[in-house]
Design goal:
Elements lengths: L1 E2 L2 H11 L3 E5 L9 E3 L5 H12 L8 E5 L5 E9 L2 E12 L7 E7 L4 H15 L5 E10 L2 E8 L7 H9 L3 H9 L13 E7 L5 E8 L1 H6 L3 E6 L6 E2 L7 H4 L2 E7 L2 H12 L2 E6 L3
Antiparallel strand pairs: 1-4, 2-3, 2-4, 5-6, 5-8, 6-7, 7-10, 8-9, 10-14, 11-13, 11-15, 12-14
């Protein structure tokens, strides 16, 4: 439900009940998204979401939604002339509640969940009247059943397109370019692997004083496919609630493996080889 004022948000929670999710109507990266469990949490949560909404150029209203309790996934889709193909499902790792910051993603070409969520994603795209393009359809699995959250008419962020390519061989940016040129995209899988990304966050907010990876480790493991630093030493890193994905992350890394289990293990192994140190403000 849309809410332009705190009063409207309160009325919405009376209909939806608790817990509830308060979020900007139009933004990205889980900025301004927060869960509330009690009415007394609503004023601060509404202001948190409204601050995120004010950063949008499209819509500055706030949404109040039912909280869906279950794992979060996204379905990466390509639609050509009204026919939607779900090419991969992305499983997401979230940071601490009550926020919804995404700290990592995994894609497995053989993920059995794809068969269950693909029809739901295709139906959502069809209901919106989308006939051509790439879509990133977000869902939560409630009691094992997919519940739709939102449809994004774009490639997923956080390098999800890269994960899809590493795991399946399907090139989503190329598919988008083909569609823009009126050409049928090639969605034939050429790989049967898995890939994952993890974001590098500091233990607390502060000034970044050190960022590095154990280089001998990086040199000897071919499955560490990419390391990317997004912040420089001397930059200020700010974690939620004051910060967001732009201010909190120092970088990210990508690994590959035979399946999700191996990718998760390698993500954990690589995590111990990174150093992200900050000096807290005094």
């Amino acid at each position: 439900m849309k809410a332009r004022t705190l009063l409207e948000a309160g009325l919405a929670t009376m209909t939806l009940g608790y817990p509830a999710v308060i979020k900007p109507t139009s933004f990205f990266g889980s900025i301004g998204v927060i869960r509330i469990d009690r009415p007394e949490e609503l004023p601060a949560a509404f202001e948190f979401a409204a601050a995120g909404a004010r950063r949008s150029r499209e819509d500055t209203d706030v949404l109040v939604e039912e909280h869906l309790d279950g794992p979060e996934v996204s379905v990466e889709c390509v639609t050509h002339r009204g026919v939607t193909t779900a090419v991969a499902v992305t499983r997401k790792i979230l940071g601490p509640a009550p926020y919804f910051n995404e700290t990592g993603h995994t894609v497995d070409a053989a993920d059995p969940l794809l068969a269950a969520v693909a029809p739901v994603a295709a139906a959502a795209v069809r209901a919106l009247g989308i006939t051509d393009g790439v879509q990133h359809v977000e869902m939560r699995l409630v009691d094992g059943r997919p519940r739709l959250i939102e449809v994004n008419a774009r490639i997923g962020g956080d390098m999800i397109g890269r994960l899809v390519h590493l795991a399946t061989g399907i090139d989503l940016p190329k598919a988008a370019a083909d569609l823009a040129c009126g050409t049928a995209p090639d969605l034939t899988p050429t790989r049967q692997e898995a890939a994952g990304i993890r974001m590098l966050y500091p233990p607390a907010s502060g000034t970044l004083t050190q960022r590095q990876i154990n280089q001998p480790f990086a040199n000897r493991v071919p499955w560490l496919r990419q390391v990317q630093w997004t912040r420089q030493v001397g930059d200020r890193l700010v974690l939620p609630p004051e910060g967001n994905l732009f201010t909190a992350r120092a970088g990210c890394y990508i690994v590959t493996g035979r399946d999700t289990a191996e990718v998760d293990e390698r993500l954990d192994t690589a995590a111990d080889e990174f150093t992200v140190t900050v000096q807290a403000a005094r």
